[in-house]
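Subject: Protein record for review, amino acid sequence with backbone structure tokens
Why sent: The fold of this protein is of interest and is recorded here as tokens.
Enclosed: The protein record, placed directly beneath this head.
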Amino acid sequence: MPPKYKFEIVTMDSLVFSAEDVESVIMPAAKGYLGVLQGHTPYITQLSSGDVTIKKDAASPVNDAEWSVSGGFAKILPGSVTIFADKVEEKRVHKDEKHTQK
């Protein structure tokens, strides 16, 4: 089983989504979709509009959460990924995840 990391989506107003045990995130970077697994090189990227998919099991065909973002940037560090989004809209979130949306 691959190591897991912390993932958050935040806006200027609030923490929108947080999960401690994520294996895979796919996000709409400025030059195309970017997939992130644990051990990814530290990186900061601008985001475009599109869907963010979060998986606790990278091999699973089912996404644990899906969000639509519009603009912002992502910060990828060892052990964590944070999306700072201009706008966020919930598409689907597994009932066990912690999220608040304004």
Q: What stands out?
A: The chain has one domain: 5-95.
